[in-house]
Predict the 3D structure of the following.
Amino acid sequence: QPEEVPELPEGVAAHLRGEGIEELYPPQAAAVEAGVTRGESVVASVPTASGKTLVAELAMLSSVARGGTALYIVPLRALASEKKTEFERWEEYGFDVGVSTGNYESDGEWLASRDIVVATSEKVDSLVRNGAAWIDDLTCVVADEVHLVDDSHRGPTLEVTLGKLRTLNPGLQVVALSATVGNADVVAEWLDAELVESDWRPIDLRMGVHYGNAISFDDGSQREVPVGSGGRPTAALVDDALDGDPDEDADGADDQGSSLVFVNSRRNAEASAKRLRDVTDPHLTDDERGRLAELASEIRDVSDADTSDTLASCVAKGAAFHHAGLASEHRSLVEDAFRDRLVKCISATPTLAAGVNTPSRRVIVRDWRRYDGEFGGMKPLDVLEVHQMMGRAGRPGLDPYGEAVLLAKNAETRDELFERYIWADPEPVRSKLAAEPALRTHVLATVASGFAHTRAELLEFLDQTLYATQTDDSGRLEHVTDDVLAYLERNGFLEREDDSLTATSVGHTVSRLYLDPMTAAEIIDGLEWAEANRGEMVRALSGEDAASDAASTPSSDAAPTPASGDPTEAGFQRASELASGAGDENGTDADETADEDETDADETTDENLDGPTYPTALGLFHLVSRTPDMYQLYLKSGDRETYTEICYEREAELLGRTPSEYEDVRFEEWLSALKTARLLEDWADEVDEDRITERYGVGPGDIRGKVETAEWLLGAAERLAGELDLSVVPVREAKKRVEYGVREELLTLAGIRGVGRKRARRLYEAGIETRADLRGADKSVVLRALRGRRKTAEGILENVGRQDPSMEDVAKADSANTERA
Ligand code: ADP
């Protein structure tokens, strides 16, 4: 029982009891036995939904009670705020909780006052790089979903970060939470931790395969689920779960069961939900229908994109879809409604299986293969992944048991699926650290932040990683490390003298900005290229070439005319004048304060409007889009022709020589980057969100993702330009345009808190162009431009420092006018 854990702070056990946690689950008890509340390191490898979070909470609360500080590392940003909210219930017992989601390149000093901090591994890595002092005082660190060290993109960061935290804090307690994996013992060995391994689940799980007209379960039982004439097994299974189970319904309880359907792509998720809404609809009560209609309109309010509309129309009938292209507000609305049993069925991509707590009566793994670009075809999912999806089946306290079902088209596949997933053990996790892109980043950061001063120290540090624990071939790591060191030296990020390693000034900046060194090299090359070819390009842009596309781009509209004499004197503000303060205003976690410091940005914008702008926004968008830190849009069929054409039309804007069409791979990447850049340009040209989603075949969440990444990379480019004495203003302007999603003339207005891209445009059209205009404007004009929203108008006037922001008189006069009319 929780009461029997003496290390737990006052009140915690009673609180847990109040939540229905009467006794610890067996794996939790085993973790306590292993010393998790006494500061011992523990690796808990247990199935999904068996209470890993509580193990972490017990560790963190008891560590903080002993005067320490705890850090909880999550694998996804979306999970950070969810976990923070979960832990906030401990604030009434005196535990302060903070979440670090701010920009990279800050030390998050305010977090020093928190007892429990939640952050992603990338954020923690960046805090270490930026020398956050409080990191040295940690006593307990939790790594959630530690099996993701196996992920080739994000795994190495978690691996290296845990290594650094342990180096900084000898004796640090590490609590690693993992799904069941094939080699939890190796993970425990790496972390010098006790191993708690268990198959225990709080609720029975039946696993089976549906084929023909029945599910065969692993316990040998069968359940009839006829597919009927429609021939769609998923629909039949969802319908069957909603009908409930007559065998288990002895107590007359509401036995209606929800379903989670896992599919392999976003498009499939949407298509599946559209079909399944006709299955869920007849099971709804009138009351549910009413509540779902409300929910649907909330969903429509989130964004005006098509996805929003489709989702709303599904939700109105009790079905939903869930994938990474959704806005986060959409995701949480759907998850909450599913937990409240209002939404009966979610069709999801596997991102839902990772982390978010959405248990369901039945889990249907419809697609067990997924397209894999590297593999070049459809590839079966890992056992571990399928087990995590299946583990979402069964809601303790609500369902008699959970059911996880795979689908087979023939008897042969049925047998294969039993072998492959139901009887199989999950794979072992394998470190991906020895890959060059991962090491490039981490070697630079390890040297820059002082964890290694020589090649020998570097190898010693790397020797403490999971990679080293696992491999027999330590020569390989050494070999890749040497390649990476040579790369970093060649690009001017590191200097080597004999055995000693030092980061250069630019190297330090790159590490702190959290850039892949290859991204930084690409950006620097592009900006230097622009500087060297400025004259020629500016001439090309103001000539006939640019005219053909002038209508669609304000940047080429304001076509840079070649300045007489030295261009640097003709409005190209030099870096040295601006380097001080460049980028600093946005470097803090307290985003709120950022937009109050707009004044100097206004000035530089105004100045720049008169002079020529080169590089153009498109050129800069393209530059950051071709770095490895931007996830590019794919070229779909027909895109190659379209973007080849655009590429030649706007070649003078692109920074660097366009690869020849015969360099197939490079040319293709160049075009993908151009497609991504065009999306950003549309956004910065105030094109409506739903037009953009349609034009590029993406979801609103994708637009936000691209915009955020571009903002970060352009901010980094601005810093690098400053440091290397290259032209800063065009970069800053491109960053602001993408940040606010507006054309140049709206930058001032859109920077005001409470004014988005649409409101800025309406104010501008009403003749209000600057903050000063807003301060002196006729209130009724402001109110009309803001569509009569009085509170909004007052807030905005207050934000620009208007003496008397009240709209009371205006509103009265206005309504009097309307009455008279
Ligand atoms: P995991 O992280 O292992 O997937 P969670 O930590 O999300 O699982 O736990 C799943 C659910 O089980 C949560 O709703 C949690 O409140 C509940 N739970 C955890 N421990 C206990 C317990 N000892 N008794 C009852 N419920 C528990």
